[in-house]
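Lab notebook: predicted structure, single chain.

Context: the supervisor wants predicted structures on file for every construct in the current expression panel, including those that have not yet been purified. This is the next one on the list. No modifications to the sequence; it matches the entry in the shared construct table.
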Amino acid sequence: MENDQRRKLVSELITLIEKGNAHVTLEEATAGLAPELRSVTIENLPYSIWQLVEHIRIAQKDIVDFSTSAEHDALAWPDDYWPKPVDTVSDSDWENSLKDIKKDQKRFFDLLNHEKNDLFSPLSWGTGQTLLREAMLIADHNSYHTAEIVVARRLLKNWR
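Prediction complete. Output recorded below exactly as produced.
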């Protein structure tokens, strides 16, 4: 793949992860959420908004760690990927989780931008995963759960 095409593809992947293109971003979905609603589990929904945000953080970090190194410690599904319910979420925990999501995205973008990293070749320590696949996985996974956050906020009557 020539460098110009690679740069265009990486730019599209980064935009997809950061901005969602046709979807609400995680930043938009979480902005202005009343703090007392972060930990509310709505009837007939399995998770609170806090659990969804933390799940996005944990899963994305796992994907980035896996994409970075063969020394990655695998998490146990589903227990390690889903936080337990809590009664309240402090402002600092909330803000730190959102910051960590951005920080791990930047780590992944650095991987994508490094021209020595082939986007299409399977990672030597994986079972066929490529950086391209992992980028699409992050975008798909985050957008899915971001939509759940929007639905939860609608049900809580705390959306636009």
